[in-house]
Amino acid sequence: MKTRRRWLRRVLFVAAFMPLLLSAALWGASEIWAIGGYSALSPRDSASQHWLYVRAHLGGFQLQWNRTNHVAGCQYSTVEGERSGLYMSRWRDLFAVALAGSPDALDRMRRNCTKWRSWREPIAPPQFTGAHPCPAGTAGVSFPLWFPTAVGALIPTFPLVSVIRARRRAFRGCCRMCGYDLRATPERCPECGTAALSPVPAAVSG
Questions:
Q1: Fewer Cβ close by (within 10 Å): the C or N end of the chain?
Q2: Rounded Cα distance, 89 and 66, in Å
């Protein structure tokens, strides 16, 4: 039982670093690639199609929801296509036209991607025909990726503080769990029953 608890504490200690590592990796990768995915949230034959888009590029993260309605003279471009997917490509290739047309396009795009914002707005159906979607509404949120990285950096501090506190207690000759003085009972804590990691010198009676 004690071995299971020890392994469980170790697993939780390592898991506390995972949000930091994942968010930092996504933040770094977004500076080079545009990473994202999409998924349909409604049946294929539904009159109103709902789509969820997730994007990360230029240090920002965006979660967007779109709704498309079937109107006369307008067809869905994705009715017969894939309903979900992932993509990863260099953002310089995706925005090559914008970057070439304006020298400050990169700065404007980065400010837009790393801005805290949310939106919800209807979009009028465009007047065209052919295999194109007809947007009827969109909503979403975006935030900079440094924020989840900073939050992920705070999570490991709690187990680290616990480890440092336990080591300091053991160094002073106290129980690493409750802080009880173990000089009189060096093998095991009489307060909580925790075994000492190393024998504590017993108190010498005068």
A1: C
A2: 22
Closest-CA residue to 57 (of 151, 150, 147, 144): 144
Residue 34 phi, psi dihedral angles, 5° rounding: -100, 115
**Per-residue three-class SS string for the chain:** CHHHHHHHHHHHHHHCCHHHHHHHHHHHHHCCEEEEEEEECCCCCCCEEEEEEEEEECCEEEEEEEEEECCCCCECCCCCCCCEEEEEEEHHHHCHHHHHHCCCHHHHHHHHHCCCEEEEEECCCCCCCCECCCEEEEEEEEEECHHHHHHHHHCCHHHHHHHHHHHHHHHCCECCCCCCECCCCCCECCCCCCECCCCCCCCCCC
134-183 pLDDT, tens digit per residue, is 557 889 999 999 999 999 998 888 888 877 877 777 777 788 778 778 77
What whole-number distance in Å separates Cα of residue 65 and Cα of residue 166?
48
d(CA 3, CA 9) in angstroms, rounded, equals 10
Handedness of CA 154, 146, 93, 126 (dihedral sign): positive
Tokens (6 digits) for 160: 């680290």
pTM of the predicted model, to two decimals? 0.67
Taking the alpha carbons at both ends of the chain, their separation in whole angstroms is 40
